[in-house]
Write a structure and sequence with these properties.
Pseudouridine synthase; two-stranded antiparallel sheet; 6 helices; 14 strands; ten-stranded mixed beta sheet; alpha+beta; 2 domains
């Protein structure tokens, strides 16, 4: 397919686990052989799921996509926690969660639904005084994080078994699911962390329409080779 000038394209990617969002951008940038490529909302390396990558003139749409509602599904583990509230840091036991019921978990989730004030995790890419807070966290420096308004439109518990809580969450831009894990654990008084996260939707874009990254890279390379014939 011949490129129109100026070129612009939107890619829906199913980000693989342990890849950073920038890793995915870099792969597509190299395949396209253009500099103007960016993503519309970071996914942590341990998370998977929908990542929107914009190229060329479509990079002007990044802010619009970032502002749209996100949907996630995943798993929280109660009874323990970690410094990062996910599996990036070692798991530390907090309290025996065997007395916690499904009703307890649903009531805690209800307290975290709607318009809430949320403190972002220290291990996040937020900037304070011009520096990423995760950089301070990695050297053991404590930075006071201010609570910010976010909206959790839906917080559905889809499975509760043993110490595992599966969920589906629809939320606004800027909501940290790891912070919801921390806050759920605090309400239940047994601690919690996020063991699995998958982003399934951004606005009207769904994971079911996303492509696997590496096959997409090969597709782009083949297309570029044909254009150069």
């Amino acid at each position: 397919m011949q490129e129109q000038e100026p070129y612009g394209e939107v890619f829906l990617i199913d980000k693989p686990k342990e890849w950073t969002s920038f890793d995915a951008v870099k792969k597509i940038r190299n395949a396209l052989k253009i500099k103007k490529v960016g993503h519309a909302g970071t996914l942590d390396p341990l998370a998977t799921g929908l990542l929107i990558i914009c190229a060329g003139k479509q990079t002007k749409q990044i802010e619009k996509y970032m502002g749209q509602e996100k949907e996630y599904e995943g798993t929280f583990v109660i009874g323990s926690t970690t410094e990062s509230f996910d599996l990036e840091k070692p798991v530390v036991p907090v309290a025996d969660p065997s007395h916690i019921t499904l009703e307890d978990v649903k009531k805690a989730a209800a307290q975290l639904t709607g318009d809430i004030m949320q403190i972002p995790p220290m291990h996040s890419a937020i900037k304070v005084d011009g520096k990423r807070v995760y950089e301070a966290a990695r050297v053991g420096k404590e930075i006071k994080m201010e609570a910010r308004p976010v909206q959790v439109r839906e917080f559905e518990i889809t499975r509760f078994e043993g110490n595992e809580v599966d969920f589906r969450i629809s939320c606004s831009k800027g909501t940290y699911i790891r912070s919801l894990a921390r806050d759920l654990g605090e309400i239940l008084q047994v601690g919690a962390y996020m063991s699995r996260l998958c982003r399934t939707r951004i606005g009207d874009f769904h994971l079911s329409n996303a492509k696997q990254l590496l096959p997409l890279i090969e597709e782009i390379k083949a297309r570029k080779a044909n254009e150069n014939l």
